[in-house]
Amino acid sequence: MELVKLPRALAGAGYRWFRSNPRQVLLGGAIVSVASVALVSEALRLPAAILSATAFAGYALLQIYGNARRQVETELVRALYQNNPLPTFSKRVLRTIESNFIQKNRVFEADRLIGLYDCLDQIRPAWILKLARSLSIRGYYRVSKNYYSHLAKRPRYAKVATEVVTLQKRIDMIASNFKVSLPKAKIKPIQGRVLHVVKQTVLDKQAGYTIRTHKIARAQAELGVDVHVVGQYGFGNGIAEKVVDGVTYHSLANGRKVLHGSDMDWFNKNTKALAALAKELRPEYLHAASDFLNAAAANFAGRSLGIKVIYELRGFWEETFMSSFTSRFGNDVKPLDDEGNETLPDSYALRQASEAKWALASDYVLTLAPTMQERIESYGVPASRISLVPNAVDPEEFKPLVRDSAMVERLGLTKDHLIIGYVSSLSSYEGVDLLIEAVARLKRENPKKKLALVVVGGGKELPRLRELAAATKFSEIMLLGQVPHNEVTSYYSIIDIFVVPRLPYEVCHLVTPLKPYEAMAMGKTLVMSDVRALAAIAAESKAAVTFEAGNPDSLKDLLLELANNPKLRKQLGDRATKWVRKDRTWMQVAKVTVGVYAKLRKA
Length: 603
Known about the structure:
The chain is α/β, with parallel strands linked by helices and 603 residues long. Helices cover 55% and strands 12% of the residues. Helix 2 (22-44) runs antiparallel to helix 3 (48-81), helix 6 (125-137) runs antiparallel to helix 7 and helix 16 (432-445) crosses helix 22. The termini are far apart. Pfam families: Glyco_trans_4_4, Glycos_transf_1.
């Protein structure tokens, strides 16, 4: 019986593919036709003219077919953006929406056209599936869910209903639609004890986020605070409890290795486990750090136990999403609402609303920079409930070092090379591609100068950036990937000019990174793009110079000026070291947090 069904199933699959890929089928048919005519012509000794005529006919048919679609596409685009009347709905319009919009990932325009024509019932299932997936990837979860829901009602697509459930869970999470029930309990908090609630800790990985947590916690411990830290449920590397540098780390899974999740069931487990740990430890404060999930869990646990909550907002992850959105999809048109306004992805708008909600719910808010405080105040949090705790450095770990000549030699460079460097993660918004282009232009225009670029760090962008570097044909432009943590300072030692080339995305304008302070502490000449957050560092320290963000020629010209002025480089490096050691140490940051604890205690 199964063997009988198989040909029918194959035929059905072939038919569906035929309907979903008409141009490919037509092209394939034309090729097969030409090949067949060629074989027949050869066999029958017919003139080559027959072959040429057939080929021309097939090509002409393909062009006519494509031109008709392109003409309809042009009319549809003019209707969307120039207020021209919509073409009368027809089968050709329908197929154009499928092949010229959905197939080409012009999903926002496709969504708008489907709404204007009210033709969803006539769109073929394969195209609806593609449209739903594309919208979900772009963060438009609610619109995507509507398409999945429609598709789930069609024969043979019932399994798509699981996607509807998954998307709804994702929407509930980022919209803070939590339904957590915790019993009220009266505890007597231990004065001077704090529990930091974070995503991951140094037990899981060494990264800017975890290093910041540990450095602040260790400095607090040196100031006499009884410091405890816990990561989210599913993190902790299977360790129940461990003391590192006077800081006690805990696991919400009590040392069991459990899966970290991102749905409502996971959040409930995470929050209940946090409340249980807080009840056991009885901290005076729950000090949560980004993102809002930690602030939400801390607020639920804190309210149930009568513990005050501080939210340290370290970044705006919705802005990070938007920077990657633009990098991946370009400045594509966003979907329009009924009044013609562009709408933001759910992954942006809902997350931002959640950040605002839990910042307002917390007793106090800490953040990294004035640019970030402005955003938080726009949520409605008064300035009197906000303090700045900037990124900083450990002056004993990062200090001026003699250049590691062995490392220079290992990289194939010489003592005469001026080394431009970058040490950090390779995210799309960091602008390392712009740095590569600027250095390549500088080397092309100044072939006699011994210049090198050394980039240290890993990330998803690394393969693409290595391709860019290889395309420059300069072997002195090298991307080394991740290196052992204990070698980082050695790489810093060989760098003459440290560049932070962040691009002009909103996340870069708002959030200050950690790496500039490390470079400054090591006495490096610091060059940064003029996004607002970095320009503020340059203005306050008077120990860094800036170039126009996103402009490789501006960076190239500044690098050339510095390459020709070793005296200026030394002045900037000396000034940077002094400023960081005076104004940007973890101990100074910890003192601010301890001051906030005392302020809340009095309140």
